[in-house]
């Protein structure tokens, strides 16, 4: 028997990427395709160098292979094309052949969205995240039924809650919306109708932040009273600290200074002059402190001396 026939290696990375997309039941990202290519190792007898070229492919080479596959399918006109929705890739039949596919699969004609539902969907797609009340404000009518229909079809979903009073739900589109309308991203909405520029999701979400409520007069008065109390407490703390410092400094003084005075100020008058000054003042004045009885004897002696002098004067004249 002859040896087993060996299957030749793929001719290009584009051929490998096309086969992976055709065999996959779900859309694949560029990362998924790269991981699948790198997972295959060369077998015995195969050209390891060629296999290493495929196994060491980069993300950029995968993207170039996808672009080449897209162009090749468009040129071939084989009834399906490459579609990218939300960063994932898949092979999809062209729209003008859809009736033949449904007839073969015996599928009913898909239900179409009504005008009101399409208008509601367009507002949500361009203004998401958005609340139901905002949609009703734009359309001018109740949209509860339309939103329920879109939710059941999984074209829109709840993406969160607003911080506005009542916390209403916020709505946004799903990946199925992109798949159904053949969009790779929401940015393509601006290309479809430049007059309806899609809102920035971050700016839109920031607009739902609840503004800080303005304080009432009672709250302002309470804040002022609290500030005044804090000020008084600070002043009392400073006064207490100063008193403690004063007490500490007084404790460091000598003991003599701490002894209380025997006389209170103002009880008696104390001559503040030094003792030396007082002695000088005493020398300047003569104080006669002789008793009166000695003063009378001195007066009699003086009178007798005067009489003797008068008698001597008379004798001399004679």
Q: Which shape, going by the Cα principal axes?
A: elongated
The N- to C-terminal Cα distance equals 211 Å
Strand content: 5-15%
The main sheet comes to: 2 strands, antiparallel
Share in helix: 55-70%
Give the neighbour order of strands across the main sheet: 1-2
Oligomer: single chain
Instruction: Give the low-confidence spans.
Output: 261-273
Rg over CA atoms: 59 Å
Please give the count of helices.
Answer: 15
Q: Tell me the structural class.
A: mainly alpha
Average pLDDT reading: 78
Which CATH architecture of the domain at 13-105?
Orthogonal Bundle
CATH topology of the domain at 13-105: Arc Repressor Mutant, subunit A
What's the total count of β strands?
4
* CATH homologous superfamily caption of the domain at 13-105: Winged helix-like DNA-binding domain superfamily/Winged helix DNA-binding domain
Give descriptors for this structure:
mainly alpha, two-stranded antiparallel sheet, 15 helices, Arc Repressor Mutant, subunit A, 7% strand, 318 residues, 56% helix, single chain
Give a structural overview:
The protein has helices spanning 13-23, 30-38, 48-55, 59-76, 98-105, 115-127, 132-139, 144-152, 175-181, 188-192, 201-206, 217-251, 255-258, 275-284, 292-317, and strands at residues 80-85, 88-93, 156-161, 169-173. By secondary structure, the chain is mainly alpha-helical. Among the domains are: 13-105, Winged helix-like DNA-binding domain superfamily/Winged helix DNA-binding domain (Arc Repressor Mutant, subunit A), CATH 1.10.10.10; 115-206, Orthogonal Bundle (Arc Repressor Mutant, subunit A). The strands form 2 sheets. It has a two-stranded antiparallel ribbon. 11% of the residues are buried.
């Amino acid at each position: 028997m002859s040896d087993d026939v060996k299957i030749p290696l793929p001719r290009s990375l584009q051929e490998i990427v096309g086969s992976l997309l055709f065999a996959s039941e779900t859309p694949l990202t560029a990362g998924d395709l790269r991981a699948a290519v790198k997972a295959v190792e060369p077998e015995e007898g195969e050209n390891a160098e060629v296999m290493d070229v495929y196994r060491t492919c980069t993300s950029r080479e995968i993207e170039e292979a996808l672009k080449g596959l897209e162009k090749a399918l468009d040129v071939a006109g084989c009834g399906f094309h490459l579609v990218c929705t939300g960063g994932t890739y898949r092979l999809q039949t062209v729209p003008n052949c859809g009736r033949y596919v449904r007839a073969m699969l015996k599928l009913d004609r898909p239900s179409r969205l009504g005008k009101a539902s399409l208008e509601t969907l367009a507002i949500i797609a361009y203004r998401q995240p958005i609340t139901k009340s905002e949609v009703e404000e734009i359309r001018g009518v109740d949209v509860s039924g339309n939103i329920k229909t879109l939710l059941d079809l999984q074209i829109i979903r709840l993406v969160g809650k607003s911080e506005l009073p009542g916390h209403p739900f916020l709505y946004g589109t799903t990946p199925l919306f992109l798949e159904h309308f053949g969009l790779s991203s929401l940015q393509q909405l601006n290309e479809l109708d430049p007059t309806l520029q899609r809102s920035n999701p971050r700016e839109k979400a920031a607009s739902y932040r609840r503004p800080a409520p303005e304080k009432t007069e009672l709250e302002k008065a309470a804040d002022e009273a609290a500030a005044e109390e804090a000020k008084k407490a600070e002043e009392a703390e400073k006064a207490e600290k100063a008193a403690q410092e004063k007490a500490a400094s007084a404790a460091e003084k000598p003991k003599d200074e701490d002894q209380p005075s025997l006389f209170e100020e103002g009880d008696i008058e104390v001559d503040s002059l030094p003792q030396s000054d007082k002695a000088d003042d005493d020398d300047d004045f003569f104080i006669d402190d002789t008793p009166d009885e000695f003063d009378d004897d001195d007066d009699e002696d003086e009178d007798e001396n005067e009489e003797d002098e008068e008698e001597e004067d008379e004798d001399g004249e004679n």
